[in-house]
Write a structure and sequence with these properties.
heterodimer; A: 372 residues; Herpes Virus-1; 4 domains; two-stranded antiparallel sheet; 15 helices; 5 strands; 61% helix; B: 219 residues; 10% strand; UBQ-conjugating_enzyme/RWD (chain B); ATP binding (chain B); nucleotide-binding (chain B)
Chain lengths: 372, 219
């Protein structure tokens, strides 16, 4: 049960397509939410790029994936390289719009579902859902759905008349003017023009920003062949971008590689979505601390390590020796941590003291007996 | 929260929300990167009716490196080690792709049970059994499903079948069972121990008789 709770906790802050009702209840919404997500990180596309085959991923995700293997993760098309990535600003725009309306839409959907459960029939609910979501996104769909649902052809004169006016229209022997439709079509035009002018203004803003940001270089950083570079040169590359130059060769190369990756991935976003260089530097720092936590430290000289840790090993052996004693937490965790070096020393070195080694193996066996 | 944890969270949530696939995921210890997955044996196969559990370890560089999976439940299958549960499947090795998920990988394991690949075996003995006599292989696989994966008809099998059958179905050699029975151990105990030790084929050379006797005395 405790485990179930843990999973519940993990899940509590997860936003995923299942927030929306299933296809059978509200068609399309869940599908839409999932198709705007990168299949590598399962987040919304962040700087979407398209491959030769047309599959779309976050720029950073696909760059990391291509560094492992040169193929499209979705269709396995061969010989895909970073140079084949193409920005997909249209997708980025859609994702941004969707992010903006998502919570709002979710609320509307949930409200209307709750409403439906209590009283009104399901058919009506579906219609209101559609028209509401349509107003949020596109003026043209609104007009479409209203023509489809609110207007009918008069059986006598074949004119399109509002559904609620059809009876009075026929009572008047089709003599009322089509005044009903005029204002609404004018409204539609207004809507469209209004929408367009909005688009214009936002574009302008983008351009203004572009000019202000033009000092920053827009070109991707070239990837380096580090084998031909000396430590000093790699450090110079790092300091060019105001990055820390500390650490050994492996660290600084990894740092520069990562910097090139996140820098170039950032360039795949539209200007207004890009992160500033200082934020990128912070991201790099966060990534490095994460890496440090992840990598287990390698033990270079197992014999020296064994001698150095002898007192600790002896303590563990002592603690583990009496069979059937309840194992304490500290014993198991430490012994797990040292399992690898001890195995290694067994295979690589012969001068390691046998008593320590043999005793340690025994310690592990005793430990596992206690578990089973 | 890093990207790996976010993605794993979503995958666990996805499995929990999906009730049609019958695939479950649960935590083994406190880490979300060590999980236990389970799926039902595919219908129309000797594995039908069993529930197969898989140990899942999510590596640091997931999803760019494949997940590590091995069967916890013992499975009699050419591409699964009958001793360790290690799995021979391309997508768990070089054919991994970051768009694959825990769910899709578990579904792939399920379909691996449907379609064994004896030409690329993980367990050569089982594969040989599969290619030489499919019928007898199916019977053993069914027996293992009943014994280890909680398949149907566990009790009937024990009651109805003869002793000789039991040896064959457990995938053991009659000569081996006779040999240890000759030392004075009860037959069912011998079968039990030999099955547990996986005393078959090439393993016979590796497991000394002393070790078997030792186990027999222990049990």
């Amino acid at each position: 049960m405790a485990r179930g709770n843990q999973i519940q906790q993990l899940m509590s802050d997860v936003q995923d397509p299942s927030d929306f009702p299933p296809q059978s209840e509200v068609p399309g919404l869940r599908l839409l939410d999932s198709s705007l997500r990168c299949t590598i990180c399962s987040e919304f596309f962040d700087g979407p790029v398209t491959l030769k085959c047309g599959h779309c991923f976050c720029s950073l995700c696909i760059r990391e994936s291509l560094s492992e293997k040169h193929e499209c993760p979705a269709c396995r098309e061969d010989d895909v390289d970073i140079v084949h990535l193409r920005k997909n600003p249209a997708m980025e725009e859609v994702v941004n719009a969707w992010k903006q309306c998502r919570s709002h839409l979710l609320q509307i959907v949930n409200d209307s579902r709750g409403h439906v459960d209590s009283s009104s029939p399901s058919k009506k609910r579906k219609r209101t859902d559609e028209s509401r979501s349509a107003t949020l996104t596109d003026p043209s769909t609104t007009s479409d759905s209203s023509t489809l649902t609110d207007f009918v052809n008069c059986p006598m004169c074949d004119k399109r008349v509002k559904y609620e006016d059809i009876n009075s229209h026929m009572d008047k022997s089709c003599k009322d003017e089509p005044a009903v439709t005029l204002p609404s079509s004018k409204l539609q035009w207004d809507n469209i023009l209004g929408a367009k002018s909005q688009v214009k203004s936002s574009k302008k803003r983008g351009k203004e920003r572009a000019s202000s940001l033009e000092e920053e270089t827009d070109y991707p950083l070239p990837s380096k062949s580090y084998d031909t570079l000396k430590d000093k040169q790699v450090r110079e590359l790092l300091s060019e971008h105001d990055l820390p130059t500390t650490g050994d060769r492996k660290t600084i190369i990894a740092r520069h590689q990562r910097w090139v990756t996140i820098y170039n991935a950032n360039l795949d976003k539209t200007l207004k979505m890009r992160k500033s260089l200082s934020i990128l530097r912070r991201d790099l720092r966060d990534w490095e601390t994460q890496q440090k936590n992840k990598t287990k430290h390698d033990i270079e000289d197992p014999t020296a390590y064994q001698i150095k840790q002898k007192s600790e090993f002896d303590m563990l052996i002592e603690a583990a020796r009496p069979k059937g004693t309840p194992k304490s937490n500290s014993v198991t965790s430490v012994s797990n941590g040292h399992k690898v070096p001890s195995n290694r020393s067994g295979s690589t070195t012969k001068n390691s003291s046998p008593s320590v080694h043999g005793g340690f193996v025994e310690a592990i066996v005793v430990d596992s007996d206690g578990e089973s | 929260m890093d990207a790996r944890l976010r993605r794993v969270n979503k995958e666990i949530a996805d499995c929990k929300n999906d009730r049609t696939s019958n695939i479950t995921l649960e935590l083994i210890d406190n880490s979300p990167f060590h999980l236990k997955g389970s799926f039902p044996g595919p219908e129309g196969t000797p594995y039908q009716g069993g529930l197969f559990e898989v140990d899942i370890v999510i590596p640091d560089s997931y999803p760019f490196q494949p997940v590590k999976m091995k069967f916890i439940t013992k499975v009699y299958h050419p591409n699964v080690s009958s001793a360790s549960g290690a799995i021979c499947l391309d997508i768990l090795k070089d054919a991994w792709s970051p768009v694959l998920t825990l769910k899709s990988t578990l579904i792939s394991l399920q379909s691996l049970l449907c379609s064994p690949e004896p030409n690329d075996p993980q367990d050569a003995e089982v594969a040989k059994h599969y290619t030489t006599s499919k019928g007898s292989f199916d019977e053993t696989a069914r027996y293992w499903t009943q014994i280890y994966a909680g398949g149907p008809g566990t009790k009937e099998v024990k009651g109805l079948r003869g002793v000789k059958d039991e040896v064959a179905i457990a995938g053991l050699e009659k000569a081996h069972v006779d040999q240890f029975e000759g030392l004075g151990f009860p037959r069912n105990k011998v079968i039990d121990v030999l099955r547990r030790l996986n005393y078959r084929g090439a393993n016979v050379a590796q497991i000394s008789e002393d070790r078997v006797v030792e186990e027999l005395l222990k049990s």
